[in-house]
Structures are given as C-alpha cells and as structure tokens.
Amino acid sequence: MDINILKSIYSVISGVLLGIAVFFVKIASSSGLIILFFINPFTWLAGALGTIGFVLMQKSFYYGNISKSIPIIAGLSIIIPVISGYAILKEAVGMGLIGVLLIAIGILFLAVSNRKT
C-alpha cells in the first residue's frame, strides 16, 4: 500500500474515533452524577475508542507529516461530535455550523495536498 494513502487513512480513522469518543463522553456525562459516569457503558466505550484513536494518531505521526496529520485529526475530532450532537441529540448548532464547514473545507484541502506529496 502506498505510504501516502496509509498515513491519510491513519489520520482520518484516528480523528473519527476520537470524535466518536468525545460524543460518547457527552452522552455518559449527561447523567450529572460522577459515580454514574464511571459505571456508564458509554464511558468505557469512549475510553476504548479514545485509546485506539490515540494509537492510530501515533501511527499517523510515524508515517506522515505531523503538520498535515494534526489538522486532519483535530478537525475530525471536532466535526464528529458537533454533527452527532445535532443529528442524534438534537442540539442547536447555530453559527457553529460555519466553523464546521470551514474545518471540513480545510480537511479537504489537506487531503488533496496529501496526494501530491
């Protein structure tokens, strides 16, 4: 497999997993009581996905250019919880939608520039 594709795949999967983990933490913390947070299955699922996402992030740093990997990972780890909160939890996004769109455009530009290097 081409190394450029591999480093992009690691970055994208890492960002998605970290974003899903953040969303699960939001669900788990909605109970309000700290003891319920630790016994909530979403907490444990978030921990597992966060760990896998972190390992894949380290792989993307090893194989790729950190200056391209970090924006992809950080962008996706922000976009995923915002979109999930809007779609599943019916949270209001408001002007945050503009930020999500700008992040998505930036990630697309990075993905295109990854192909050329």
List the helices and strands and how they pair.
Layout: H1 3-28, H2 34-39, H3 41-63, H4 66-87, H5 96-116
Helix pairs in contact: 1-3, 1-4, 3-4, 4-5
Structure description:
- With 117 residues, this protein is an all-alpha fold.
- The chain has one domain.
- It has five helices and no strands.
- The chain is flat and about 45 Å long.
- It starts with a helix and ends with a helix.
- The model has no long low-confidence stretch (mean pLDDT 86).
The Cα radius of gyration reads: 16 Å
Order of helices and strands: HHHHH
Which bin fits the share of residues in helices?
A: over 70%
Give average pLDDT, whole number: 86
Would you tell me the structural class of the helices and strands?
mainly alpha
List keywords for this structure.
117 residues, mainly alpha, 5 helices, 84% helix, 0% strand, flat
Summarize the structure.
The chain has 117 residues and is mainly alpha-helical. The protein is built from 5 helices and no strands.
